[in-house]
Design goal:
Layout (H helix, E strand, L loop, with lengths): L6 E6 L2 E6 L2 E6 L6 E2 L7 E6 L5 E6 L6 E6 L6 E2 L8 E6 L5 E6 L10 E6 L6 E2 L7 E4 L5 E5 L17 E5 L7 E2 L7 E7 L2 E6 L6 E5 L7 E2 L8 E5 L12 E4 L1
């Protein structure tokens, strides 16, 4: 069998969902036969499990523009949550109670790359702006502590870029709405994620994009992957630590 082209992994305990052939699939974390969840007529991207693992939110293009959709994680009909007609939409995660899906979009902006953070109820309705300024991706952790990634989504597209729109990470450790730069490295820093008490992210400051982590104050930088040819892309985690932790997961491209 020819190898597939697998993208956008998301993990929940012993399961991984991912995109291949523009559809959603799921497979046990230990490996095995993948099961197809969708037969979409368009591209699917950025799936994220709900906190209880029962639902999957994702970006679909069934009617042209990228929009947020919701479906049971075991399979079933998908339901469209947003009707914003934007050019950019990225599902980033969920609220802790599972009642809202977090995403970024250029909805309401005059510029395509000027994306901001939003939340939308699982019942649908108008998206709620989170009012943090420019945000490419974000992660909300314990006690509403928030990480935001600015400028960039994918270091593999602009390899070793060091210009003014390189990815940059900011943190609000208390959830009070006051952000500061997390860490300064000469590279493209993207996709911040909470995992336990540490911040995980992708950076190519050593030449190839790998997964790193640091403490909440930006100290104690560590590397967790050793990709030497392919870039680590689109990581995600279910936020759990320990021997059976399902994260971070990423694709190599």
């Amino acid at each position: 069998m020819d190898p597939g082209y697998y993208r956008y992994p998301t993990a929940f305990r012993e399961r991984v969902a991912f995109v291949s052939e523009d559809d959603l699939w799921t497979v046990p974390l230990s490996g095995g036969i993948a099961r197809r969840l969708t037969t979409s007529v368009s591209e699917i991207s950025f799936p994220r499990f709900s906190p209880d693992g029962r639902l999957l939110a994702f970006v679909g293009r069934e009617e042209g523009h990228p929009e947020v959709y919701l479906m049971p994680s075991e399979g079933g009909p998908a339901r469209r949550l947003t009707f914003i007609g934007a050019n950019v939409c990225v599902v980033c995660g969920w609220s802790a109670d599972g009642n809202e899906v977090y995403f970024t979009s250029d909805y309401g902006s005059p510029f395509e790359r000027e994306t901001q953070a939003f939340a939308v109820s699982t019942d649908g309705g108008a998206p709620r702006p989170l009012r943090w300024g420019h945000v490419a991706t974000f992660s909300v952790g314990p006690s509403n502590a928030t990480l935001i990634g600015r400028n960039a989504l994918d270091a593999a597209r602009w390899k070793r870029y060091r210009g003014g729109t390189a990815g940059d990470l900011w943190i609000d450790p208390s959830g009070a709405g006051t952000f500061r730069r997390l860490i300064t490295l000469r590279g493209n820093l993207i996709w911040p994620m909470w995992l336990g008490e540490r911040v995980y992210f992708v950076s190519d400051h050593e030449g190839i994009a790998n997964i790193y982590s640091c403490a909440k104050d930006g100290d104690d930088l560590r590397t967790h992957t050793d990709e030497r040819e392919y870039y680590a892309r689109y990581p995600s985690t279910d936020g759990r630590c320990g021997r059976r932790a399902a994260g971070p997961r990423y694709c190599r491209q």
